[in-house]
């Protein structure tokens, strides 16, 4: 054990003294970097040595190393130009190495950048370059001063996408770098351990979340050959040409290894074979499976796929050995949106009043592409406001005007009203106009959507009224507050029923005791409501031997796969604690009730005086919108007594919601308790008779099966006797 501990990797962790943190330089020399003398001593550098500095996006440069005691240890000071050449910023990490093979240059070709020589006259070489290079020996990489100036646009276009250009997905980027960079840069690690490196990664997420951007950033940072495949490039009407195009792509990638094959919108070329009607799609899927299996384990070729519909891809592609890891690039949170905004605004001219943190809070549901569009729209709004000072007929714009233009907070606020998030474009999203003054008589037991709307208005938050776009609303209702969604009409129901979660049947729940005593409310755990696609305040339909309608409320104290209801609701369903009920998010024909006839139960009004409607029913229905069902019982507390009522008639429909406009009638003879109990007894007798009849039918079926078997044996026996007689007669 001691011998093993001696060679443990944790005991011999490699140190990296040549990796230094970038700091601001005091001087403004483009060919000099400064380090602390102790740092130079550790790296075996001497003053005046030429060193090679490696930055990001595979950029490097050479500089002269100088010692500076004001510079902190493990830091390197460089000016803005050197940082730009290395594509790094303050606080980034660079690696430094001694450069031994730098020779004196014989010929160097240098050109100016166009936007820096506007208004400059005279010979650029005599005025700028000769004093600069005659002052000291300066190392350089590029080699006259004759030719057209370099355009700033062309120089900016050379900035390839890197990890710094991807924001809001740092967790996903860590996984991707682990799965891609290690096999491409250090394949010997997997060889020494004795395992095969991963071959493929599937990126999925909403449109605009940065799937293609991440793939290009990984290719640029690793230096791998990037081969992008689109569906239009592969598909062909000629037989066999699509498979040939796919094969050529994989062969080209293997020749240029290390390489990354990126298949964008892979669901368009590799859909589920059982759902495709064309033979071409099936052949392409088979060819892709064969090519992925044919990739050599150490060929340094990584396959990356991107889609926003992962469930539409053929399941054979999603196993280990093909797409080893599936990474979800979801909608970024507030911190992620702030990172993306900083990336898109790093080159924008913003006024001091612009607070990106506030903008990040106001952009719920925005993905990277939406935030980029937001910044562009804010810039366009800024240009529109300054069009009166710009003459479109002029070939150029005055520099003073350009310097005075900046994007302000108001421009972003205007852009927020124009750019809608991609994730919410198919939903009805608005900030409600309901305030606290619009709610009166709200008790603790009342938890309706109007309360959520009020909070949303006070906080200026969006309130999503309609739910998932894949769900079809099967029932049209006149009540805007109700969201009645039928789970059976959900899109991709076949995938849900085939999955493990679909087979667990979350629609069947165990009855538990309720904490409150409201007859129109049941409580479920938030996770259970999420599985059932139920939102707080929805009207649900519960079924057992009877059915009833209630308002669903979320309660963390309720256990998962349980439903909490009081004694009256259990009585209406004819269930007890521990029984199983089925819950449906589909209440057919629920509307505002126009007329409801309600009568009390006789044994609960003994000794009660006064008007039952004013004392019990009016306060009960005025404090909340309550759903009722014809034939249900409900208990109302008022004064010193509790009175039980029964719903005799409801108009329109069997289910309805009682509102302040509903006419409630409470005239007639009270309901006898004996009649209610006789209904339960009758139901039990019917069920008992049905069970007896079912048992008799089963017995008859078993007897018929036995008789059928006897008839078969008798028939075989008679055939045998007949055959024997015929043979004997022939003899």
From TrEMBL:
Boundaries of every AAA+ ATPase domain copy: 197-333
Organism: Fagus sylvatica (Beechnut)
The protein's name in its UniProt record: Vesicle-fusing ATPase
GO BP term (any one): autophagosome maturation
One Pfam family this sequence matches: AAA
One cellular-component annotation, GO: VCP-NPL4-UFD1 AAA ATPase complex
InterPro entries (UniProt xref): AAA+_ATPase, AAA_ATPase_domain, AAA_lid_3, Asp_de-COase-like_dom_sf, ATPase_AAA_core, ATPase_AAA_CS, Cdc48_dom2, CDC48_domain_2-like_sf
Transmembrane annotation, as ranges: 708-729
Residues covered by the CDC48 N-terminal subdomain domain: 19-102, 508-588
